[in-house]
Each structure stands twice: as structure tokens, then as C-alpha cells.
Amino acid sequence: MCKRALKNSIFANNIKLNWNGILSGRYNRDKTRLVAEYFRLDANLERAKIADRLNEQRPPHKAPLNVLIQANISNEAVNPVYNG
Q: What is the CA 4 to chain-centroid distance, rounded?
């Protein structure tokens, strides 16, 4: 996970700024707590297990985490990323 994105998110939260940082690149299970606590939008969700962890680790006082989902509706050949 990008340290700069985390730093910007913490700064924005401290000054009550509504900031939508989008993480670049993949992250693994040990980073989900940071994403759940400090971000409002995730564009890198690749596995159901990660979605479950984000949901479990989201603080109760925060709104649900928004996610962007990419769907292949044209049956175009792609490299598989999601394995369920």
C-alpha cells in the first residue's frame, strides 16, 4: 500500500477534509485494517476474502467502504485476477 496515500488520508481526516484517495496497486491481507480505517474508496478489491476482512475491520462509526468493481461484459479475453 502506498505510504503517501495513507499519510494524505490521515492528514485529510485530521482537518475534516473529504478526500477520496484511490490506492494504486495491490495490497495483501495484512494491510486491510489500514484501508478499512483510513480510506473511503477502494479500487483494488480482488478477492472475496479481502472484502470480508475490510467489512469486519471497518470501524462502526464510519460509513461503509465504497468499492469500484470492474466487470467484463463483452467476454473479452483477460488475465484472470479474481479467484473467488
A: 15
